[in-house]
Amino acid sequence: GESVGLHLPTLSVQEGDNSIINCAYSNSASDYFIWYKQESGKGPQFIIDIRSNMDKRQGQRVTVLLNKTVKHLSLQIAATQPGDSAVYFCAENMRGYQKVTFGTGTKLQVIP
Amino acid sequence: DGGITQSPKYLFRKEGQNVTLSCEQNLNHDAMYWYRQDPGQGLRLIYYSQIVNDFQKGDIAEGYSVSREKKESFPLTVTSAQKNPTAFYLCASSTKGPQYEQYFGPGTRLTVT
């Protein structure tokens, strides 16, 4: 049956500090991973992706780390700003499958 | 401007009525997706389509139907058979498939009473 709604884990960070959002993914065969940002009442926005042949990828102010051994993904945001306040989702896909599996999300609160 | 649009933003219906949510993209993307999001939860896949006139069920397709008659359009019908239709519905598209970035629309919040 459908799962009951859960309170999102929340990370509170001081403006200007670095944020680290973690995600444990479920399928050891997944080879493509994405981070999305969702602001309240809006659709998710792509932040950064990484394929399983890499363990680190950097974007503008963001870094994604992939540890396949323990099935762990993290998103690091440097110099966190108030505009970074949102819910962050990790997602995974296995090549050949059409479904992208989304995590439940982490809410990032930036304290001015 | 290229993008993906959903309409309406808010939709209210009485129980027992079918309702169709619109999704249009002008990104020339082949793949389109419908997700449902409930409070405090991630996105769950309802239906997806990789090409015109073809679509597949996702994890929670029961009570929903779709069509893909045009590349740009992927409407979702929430039927009266859907037991708990009140939710936030998100449409997305991607260039070729799930190993490419998905572009999301702004969502439609459906309330059924």
What would you note in describing this structure?
The complex is a heterodimer of chains A (112) and B (113). With 112 residues, chain A is mainly beta. Chain A contains no helices and 10 strands. In chain A, a hairpin with a 7-residue loop joins strand 8 (86-93) and strand 9. Chain A is globular, with a radius of gyration of 14 Å. The model of chain A is unreliable at 1-5 (pLDDT under 50). By secondary structure, chain B is mainly beta. Chain B is built from no helices and 11 strands. Chain B has strands at residues 4-7, 10-13, 19-25, 31-37, 43-51, 54-57, 64-66, 76-78, 87-94, 103-104, 108-112. In chain B, strands 2, 4, 5, 6, 9, 10 and 11 form a 7-stranded mixed sheet that branches. In chain B, strand 5 (43-51) and strand 6 (54-57) form a beta hairpin. Chain B is globular, with a radius of gyration of 13 Å. The model of chain B has no long low-confidence stretch (mean pLDDT 93). Classes of the chains: A mainly beta (112), B mainly beta (113). Chains A and B meet through strand 3 and strand 4 of A and strand 4, strand 5 and strand 10 of B.
> How many helices of chain A?
0
Count of DSSP strands of chain B: 11
Distance between the termini of chain A: 41 Å
Going by helix content, strand content and strand pairing, the class of chain A is: mainly beta
Shape of chain B: globular
Low-confidence stretches of chain B: none
Number of strands of chain A: 10
Residue runs with pLDDT of under 50 for 5 or more positions of chain A? 1-5
Strand % of chain B is over 45%
Quaternary structure: heterodimer
- Rg of chain A, rounded, reads 14 Å
- Given the structure, what is the number of helices of chain B? 0
Q: Biggest interface and its residues per chain?
A: A-B, 27 and 30 residues
Largest sheet of chain B: 7 strands, mixed
Layout of secondary structure:
The complex is a heterodimer of chains A (112) and B (113).
Chain A: E1 10-14, E2 19-24, E3 32-38, E4 45-51, E5 56-58, E6 62-67, E7 72-77, E8 86-93, E9 101-102, E10 106-111
Parallel strand pairs in A: 1-10
Antiparallel strand pairs in A: 2-7, 3-4, 3-8, 5-6, 6-7, 8-9, 8-10
Chain B: E1 4-7, E2 10-13, E3 19-25, E4 31-37, E5 43-51, E6 54-57, E7 64-66, E8 76-78, E9 87-94, E10 103-104, E11 108-112
Parallel strand pairs in B: 2-11
Antiparallel strand pairs in B: 1-3, 3-8, 4-5, 4-9, 5-6, 7-8, 9-10, 9-11
